[in-house]
Batch of 2 targets.
Target 1
Amino acid sequence: MKRRRTWIVRAALLAMVICVLLCLGMGAVKTPEREIPPAMRRPMNARTAEERVTMRLPVQARVSMADVSLNVREVDDFLLTPALLVQEAVSDGVVLTYPEE
Amino acid sequence: MKKTRICARGLWVAGVLVAFSITGAIGLCQIEPSGRKAGLIQFDVISDLNMDWGGYTSAVRFARYWVCQDYYAVAVVWSEPHGRDVQDKKTMVVLSDREGFRIKYELDADWHPLNTTYPKPVGERPAFRWGGGAYGGDEMRFAEAAAVSRRVYVSDLEPPKSKKRDAGGVTDVDVPRAPDGITRKLAHLKVQTKDDRIESMDLFDNQRRPLGRMRYEYQPDGKVPRIATLVADLPVRREKLAVDANVVVIPRHAGAPEQKETYRVPDVNHVSHTGGRTAIVTYSDVPVGDKVLRLPVKVEVRRSDDKRLVRSARLMNFRRVDLDKEGVWKAAKAFASLGDEYWTFRRLNAKYIDFQPTLGPLRVDPNDLAFVQKLIAKYPLPEVIQPPGGYRSGARPQVTRPRRMEVEPDDARLIRQLEAYYMRTLSTPLTEEQRAEMKKGTIFRSGGRLSASERPVAELRSKLRMILVYHHVPVLPEDRPPEMDPNDARVIHELQAHYEKLVTQSDRGLPGQLKALHVLTRLDLMLKDYDAFERHTGRYLQMLQDAGLGGMYMTGGYGNIQNLAERRQYDKANKLMRQWADRSAGANDADGVYRFCGSDLGGNGDPWAAVQLLDRFLKRPGLSPVQRYEGLALRAISLDKIDKLLADPETAYDESRKVQAGWVLSGTTKAQVAKLVEPAVRQAVSAWEALGPARLSEAKPYSTNDMAGMQQNLMGAPDATRLQETSARLDRIVSQRFGQKGTTPRPGETKRPAPSR
C-alpha cells in the first residue's frame, strides 16, 4: 500500500527535480542558493493529504490563462463606465468618482 | 416570499438614494464636484481598446447611451475590426434600473444568460471562472453593482462639523453602513477639501484596504468651481479564481484497482489590474437642451506602473430626449439591431467566404486500427530518439526529420475524416453520472481525462493531425467554395445597392457607415470584384484616419490587405500595404506598433507586414534607446522568419504560409531577404548592448511563454514582459545563426556575447 503513489505526487516530484535543476542552473530565481522556493516547500510541509492537494492546485494552475480573461473582463465591463460616469453627473447628491471595471 | 424580500430591498435602495439626494441638496449643495439632476440624456461613445495578447491588439466599440438618475441603457451598434471586438459585443443592449439588469443579444438570441433580466440586488461577484480570453458578458452586472456599492454621496460628508479635520484640511469620514442586506463596499473616506471643493478623496473598505484615490482639478476661471479633470488611481485588485470544489484523485497503477480519493479545495487567491490603473476623466461644458451641463467627454485608462494607455472613450452627441423607460428600451434595441439585410448578408458570407467544407461520409472502418496505422506509416513523422542510458547519460536526444511528402488527395481526405471522427469520439457527451457530479461542483483529475481505451485513439488522432501539419497536403475540390448561384448574385447586387446608400448617409454616423463598408467589401470578395474591394477599402481607411482611430487603421486595414494577398492579388496588396505602412507608422506610438508586430493576428502571423511597418516606424525621430531596440529586435525576428520560410519551401506546409511566401516573392527575392537578416540581427544586438544596465533588466532575454505553468509557479518566476520575451526570441536567433549557446545572461554575467562579425 505504501508503494502506491498518486500520479500527482510523482509528477510533482519530477517537476520539483527539474525546477531545482533549472533554478540552480539558470539562476532564474532570486532565492538564496540551494534554498527551495516557498511554492515547492509549502506542500512538502503539509500535514494532511488534503492540505497537500489544496496547496498544489494553485501551483499547477496556469494563471496566465485566467489573466487573459481578467483583461477581457476589464475591457468588457468598460462598456458600462460612460453610463455610470454620466449617471453620477446627472444625479443629485452624488460626488463624482470613477466606477469599477 | 423571495419576491417580497426583493421588492422590500428595492424600496430600501430607492429610499436610501432619495434620502441621500435630499440631504445632499439641502445641506451641501455647494460641495464640488457633485452631480445635478438633468433628465434623460442620449449620447454616443467610441471606445478604443488596447489588448496585450495574441488576438486583435486594437478594437473599437461604438455604442449609444441613454442615461438619467434612475436608470441607463446601452446599445452596441458596431465594432471594429470588421464587426469584431475583443468579445463580439455588437447588438448587445443593456438596461439597468433599480429593479434589475436587463440584457439582450440579438447575435445569439437563444443564449439565456445574455437574453434575460437579472433582478437586483445582483449579489457579490462570484470567484472568477473564465480563462483563455473567454468571459461571460452578463457578469457586467457585477461591475455595476461594485461601482454603485462604492459610490460617494454628498450626505456621506455631512455634517462636516462632526468629522475630524486635521491641519492639512484632510477629513476622516466613516461612511454610514447601509441597512439590512444593502451592500456598501465603501466604509471609510479621507477627504481633502478647500473652499467647498474636494481636492482629493481616498476610498477604503471596511478593513481599511484602499479602493482608490480620486484627485480633482478645476477650471481656473469662474466663481463657481467647475471640475476639469478627475484622476482616479486604482490599485491592484484581489481576485478569487474559482475552484471551490471536490478534487478527485485517482491513483493509477498497472493492475491496481481504482480507488478514488476526494479532497475539498477552496478558491485560489489571485490579483487583477496588475500594475494598477490610472483613469483620467475630462469634463467639459456641454449644451443639452436649454441647459449647459458639466459632463464627462473623455476617459483614458492607463497602467499606473508604465503609463501605457490600455483603453479610452470619447463621449459625444449629447442631447436631451423625451422617452419613458420602455421607450428607451425599444429605441436601444432598434438602434443595435443588425436589420434583415445584414442577416441575409451573413447567410451569403457563410456560404461563399467563411465556407466550411463537407468531406462526405467516412468510407473506411475507423475501428480497423491496423488499417489506420498502415495509413499513418505511409507518411513518416519526426521522432525523438532518446540516447542510450536516457537523459542521465548527458547526451542530447536525436530528432529524426523525414522528408516532407506530398499527401495523396484520397489519403488527405481520409486522414482529415478520421481525425475529425476520432476527435468526436474523444469528446463524447458526458454521462449522466458525470453530469450529476459536475452539478455538485466536482472536478475529475485522474491523470488526464482519457480512459485506458481512449488513449490509443488519442494517439492515432495526434499522429493524423501531425501528418496534416508536417507533410504537404493538397487542397481538395471540396475545400473550394461553391460557384455563385445566379439567385445569390441577384441578392448580392440588391445588397450592394442598399449598403452603398447607407455609406453616404451621415445621419447613421461613423458606425453605420463602417458597418455598410464592411458588408460592401465582403460582397466584393464574393463577386471577386477586387477593384471595388480596393475602392471600398480606401474609403474605410480614410474614415478611420479622419476619426483619429490610428490603432484601428493598422489592425483593420491589415485585415483587408490580407484578404487581397490570400486571393493572390499581390499587386493590389502591395500597393495598399505601402499606404497602410506609411500611415500606420505615423499614426501609432511605439506601444501600439510593437503590440501589433508581436500579435498572432498581426505581425507575428505576417512577418512581411511587420517588416514594412517597422522599416517606416524606426525612421521616426525621438525614439528612446529601449524603443529603438525593441523595434530593431522585432524587425530582426520578422526577417528571420521570412528568410526561413523562403529558404526552405518544405516548411510551407499550409496554404497560408504558401500565400505568404508567394506574396513576399512578388516584391523581392530570396537572396535579397537573406542579405538583410544577419545585418538586422547584428543591428538589434548592438542596440541591446548599447542599453547599458537596462539590457540585463528591462530588456533581459527572459521568457515565461514556453515555461510550464507549474514550473513557473514553483520557481516563483515573475511573468516576462513583452520586451523580455522579444529579447528571448532574439536570443534564440543569435544562438541559431551564430552558434552561440546560453546567451541568456546568468546572475554573474554582465555582458551578453555579441555575434561574430
Target 2
Amino acid sequence: MTVTEPSNEELARPAEAPSPARRRRAYRQDRNGPFFWVAIVTLSLIFVIPLVWMILTSFRTVEDSRRIPMTLIPDELTLRAYQLMFADEQNPVFLWALNSLLAATGHVLLVLITASMAAYALARLEFRGKNALFGIIVITLFVPGFIFLMPNYLIMDQLGWLDTLIALIVPGAAGAFGVFFLRQFFLAIPKELEESARIDGANTWQIFTRIMLPNSKPALVTLALIAFLANWNDFIWPIFVLFSPERLTLPAGLSTLQAAYNIDYPVVMAGATFAAVPVLILFMFVQRYVIEGVATSGLKG
Amino acid sequence: MTSSTFSAAQSIGAAVEATPPRKGGRLRLNHPATPYLMLAPYVVLLCAFVLGPAVFGIWVSLHDWDFLLPNKPFIGLQNYADLIDPNSITFEPFWKGMRATAIFVVASVPFLVLIPLGIALLLNRTFPARSFFRAMIFAPFVLGIAVIGVLFRYLLDSQFGLINYLLGLVGIPAIGWTQTQPWAWVGLVGMTVWWTLGFNTVIYLAGLQGIPRDHYEAASLDGAGAWGKFAYVTVPGLRNVLVFIVTTTVLASANMFGQSYLITNGGPGDSTKTAIMVMTQEGLRSFKMGSATAMSYILAVFLIIISAINFMALREREAKK
C-alpha cells in the first residue's frame, strides 16, 4: 500500500536522464523481467513488514499481541498502550522527546558554526601549521570512538556536565566529520566568486558569511541532517552520562521502557513507534540530502 | 548566539581592514589572526574532547583509577599486564568479550559486504520508484539502534515473536533466539544486516554510478556477457569503494554494543557480551576506569592493525592486476 503511492509520484516525474532515451528504454526492456520485480517486491516486504508490525502491535491489546495464530490486522484497535505510556511518570516519553530535540538541535548549531569556520580556514586561508592541523583532524577520523568514552566521562564529571544535555551537545561536536565534509565542499566552489567580492572590498569574514555560506546551502543542510540524526540516535553515550528519568533522551529512555514493560509488547512498541514515526516522516522529506550526503562522503573516504 | 557571532564578525572585519597590503611580496588577503580566530572554536573542542581525552585516557590506564575512591595510585603498565595474565580477574571477561566481538565481525561482515552489492546492482537499473526503494532500504538505519533493538527483541521473542511464528508456518519449530547458541548470533547478525545494509548499498550505488557507461559498451563490443561485464568492469570499477566498505564495516561491527545490550543482554551466558559491553561495564558501571581504558586501547590497537591489513590486502590485488 505504502509502496504504490510514491511509485506513482516517481512515474509522473519524467525520466531521470532523458538524454540517451532510446538506449535506456531498450536497457530497461531487456533487463527488468518478472524475476527482477519478484526480487524488488520481496525486498520491500522484508523492509516494510517489521516496521508495520511495530506500529500495528502498538495498537493491539495485550491478549491480541500474544495470540497464536497471529493476524496482521488487530482484532480491535486500542489506545491502551499509548494511554499507559503517556500516563507513566517513571517513563516520561514527552520529556525524552523534548530532551532529544533540544540536544540534537543544540548539537547541530554548534557543529554548523564551529565546523564551517574551521573548514573555511582550512580550505581557503593561508596560515602556519595548516597542513599539520589538517593532518591531525584526518587522523582523528580513523580513531575508534569508544576510546573517548571513559576519559570523556571523567571530563564530564569534572565539568559538572554529567546528567545534563550539555554532555550530549558539546563533546560530539569535536568530531572531525563536519570539518572534513565542509572543507571538501568549499574546495569545490570556484575561487572567482570570492575574488570578485574581494575586489568589491569585502573582508575575509564577509566573504565567508556572504559568499561561501550562501553558496554551500546543500552541504550545510546535509551536514545538519547527518549530525542531527547521529545525535538523535546516539545510544551508548546517553545511557551512561544521563541517569535521571526526566533527563533521558528517547533512545536511552526506550531501553528503560523496555526494562519496565518487558513482555507487555504493545507498550514497548508504542514507545518505539513514538520514537520512530517523527524520524521516518522527517526522513521522507529529506531522504535525498541524507542519502546523497552519505554516498558522497563514503566515496571520498 | 547571533549577537556574539556578529561582534566576532566585526572585530575580525576591523582587523582585516587595518592591514595594509604587503609591499613587494604576495598580496596578503587577510589579517594574520583571521585564520586562527576562525579555527579557534573548533580547535578548542578538538583539544578538549578528542586530543585531550586520548592522552588523558592513557594516563588513566596507568593508574588503579577507581572513580569512587579518593586514591588513584600509579601502577605503571599493571592494567595492561593483567589483561594478558590468565590469572588476573580482568583477563577472562576481557578476552571473552574480544572473542564475542571477533565472532560478530567474522559472521556479519561477509553479509554486509555482499548483500548490499547485490541489492545495489538490482537498484542500479532504471525502473520506476527507484529512489523510493533506495530510501526504503535506508530507512531502518535512520531509526537508530534503540528503536531497532527493542523492535527486534519483540520480533525475536521465542514465544510471541513474529519471526518464530512465520517459521512455524513452514514447519520450523520455535527457536530460542535469545536463549541458545548459535541462534543468538544468527539473530543478532541477521537484525544487524537488516538494520545497516542500506548504508553500504547507498555507497555501492554511488560507486556504480561512477563507472563510465562506455566501459560497459566496450565490454559488450568485446563480446562480454553479463558475468563478464560484472567481473571485468563492475568489480574493478568498485575496488576503492570496496576497500572503504570493508574497512568501515569491520570497524562498525567491532563497535557492536546496542544489539547485544538491548536484545540478548550479553546472553546466553556471556556469549554475546562484546568487548565494548565488557569495557563499559568495567569502566562506567563498576567505575574501574584504569582497567577499562586499558581494554579500550588494546581493542583500538587491534582495530588499527586489522584496518591496515584490510587496506593493504585490497590495494595489493589492484597492484598485481
